[in-house]
Amino acid sequence: QHTDIEADLQVVLKTILNYTKSEKTPLPYRVFLSQLHHFEIDLCKHAMIEETILMKKVIELELTFS
User: Fold this and answer.
1) Which tops the pLDDT comparison, 23 or 32?
2) Helix extents (H) in the chain
3) Quick one: which of 12, 62, 1, 38 has its CA closest to 20?
């Protein structure tokens, strides 16, 4: 079972971005935000692979061994 991590991550990102409206955001902070965005993309890819490939295989195996 997975919780809706993507939605939780969006809330975190929006909260962080609300505090970073400055033109002079420090480079390490911008790098952190960029990494967070890449993490979000990777998380979506992971969920898609899990749902489209792994779940089909699990169902297939369950039917085979039932």
Assistant:
1) 32
2) 5-18, 27-49, 55-64
3) 12
Q: First and final CA of the chain: distance in angstroms?
A: 22
Long-range contacts of 4-9 (CB under 8 A, 24+ apart): 5/43, 6/40, 6/43, 6/44, 6/47, 9/36, 9/39, 9/40, 9/43
Q: How far apart are CA 54 and CA 60, in angstroms?
A: 10
How many whole angstroms from its chain centre is CA 30? 18
Residue with tokens 């969920």: 47
| CA torsion through residues 11, 15, 32, 21, sign | positive
26-53: average pLDDT: 88
